[in-house]
Amino acid sequence: MTKVIIDTDTGVDDGMGLLYALVSPEIQVVGVTTSFGNVDVEKVTRNTAICMERLGSTAPLARGAERAIAGEAPTFNPQIHGHDGFGNANLPDPEYSNLVDVSAAELTIRLVDENPGELTYIGLGPLTNLALAVLLDPSLPQRLTRVVWMGGAAAHHGNVTPVAEADALHDPEAAAVVIGENWEFVQVGLDVTDETVFGVDDLQTVRQSSSPAAQLVAAGAPSYMDFYEPILGRYGCAMHSPLTIAVVAHPELVLAEQKYRMHVELTGTYTRGMTVVDRRVGRVGGPVWSNAPLITVITDVDRAAFITRYVQRITA
Ligand SMILES: [Ca+2]
C-alpha cells in the first residue's frame, strides 16, 4: 500500500480522482490539501470535504493557497466545472469535520515528518501549496521522495492556451520551484490525460450504482461532459486527475515513460505556463538544458483498462 497526500483543486475531474483514491485499497490517503484552481479555494475546500465525508474518510483536510505564490489574482471559468466547481450539482454543505486549523503547507510538512521517506505527494492542481511547503522547510525533499503531478504537457498542446495546461498556468512560478527540487518528479500531463475519456456508457453504469462514490460522480460529471462534448466530438470527459491517481495506485497501467529535462516558461508572450520539455536526442543543448531538472514523463497508458477499473471501483 502506498501512503499518499493529495493536493487538489476540486473540480469535477479532481473530485472523480479523489473519490477513486479513497476507494482504492492500493493507496492510503493520509491527508488532503486544497488549492485555488478550477474555482476559488473556499469552493474547492467545500467540494473536497463533501467527497471525503460521503466516503467516510477521516484523513485531515487543510485549506490551502487562494492565489499564486507571485500574488497573481486567479481567474476562473465556471463554464468548465460549474459555478460550484462540481458540475452545478447543488450538493448540501459538508460538516467540515476533517478540516484542521493549519495551512496546506503546514499540514504537508507535518505529514511528511510523521512519514519520512514513505509518502507520495499527488498534485492535482497548481503546485502552490507544495512550493510554499518547500519554501517553509527547504529540507522537505530529503523526506518527501516522490511527487506525481497532473499538469503541463510534454508533446501535446495545452488546454487553456495553445501550449499551457491549466494547473501549470495557474501558478508557473510554483511549478518551477517544485520541479527544480531534488525529488523524483513524475508528470502525468495532457499527453496521456486528454484522450483518456469517461464516456456515455460509463456514466450510465455509474448511474445504476448506489455507492456513495458513484452518486457523487453521477451528480458532478454530466455538466463537465457537456463542456467536453464539442472538444472531444462525443459526450464524455477527459480523466485528468483520476488517471493521475491510477499512475500511483495501478502502476501496471503505465505502458511507457521517458526521462526528460524540463523547464516551466515564466515570461513568454504567448507561452507562459508551458512545460518546455527537451525531447531532442543527441543535440547539444547548452547548460540551460543540460542542467534543467530531469523528470519522468508518462507517455502512454492502458486507457481502456484504466476506464474499466475506474468504473468498477467507483460503482463497487
Ligand atoms: Ca485539477
UniProtKB/TrEMBL annotation:
Pfam hit, one: IU_nuc_hydro
GO molecular function, one term: purine nucleosidase activity
Domain of life of the source: Bacteria
Residue ranges of domain Inosine/uridine-preferring nucleoside hydrolase in the record: 4-307
Keyword check for Hydrolase: yes
CDD domains, sorted: nuc_hydro_CaPnhB
UniProt keyword annotation of GTP-binding present: no
A GO biological process held by the record: purine nucleoside catabolic process
Keywords: Glycosidase, Hydrolase
GO cellular component, one term: cytosol
Name this protein carries in UniProt: Inosine/uridine-preferring nucleoside hydrolase domain-containing protein
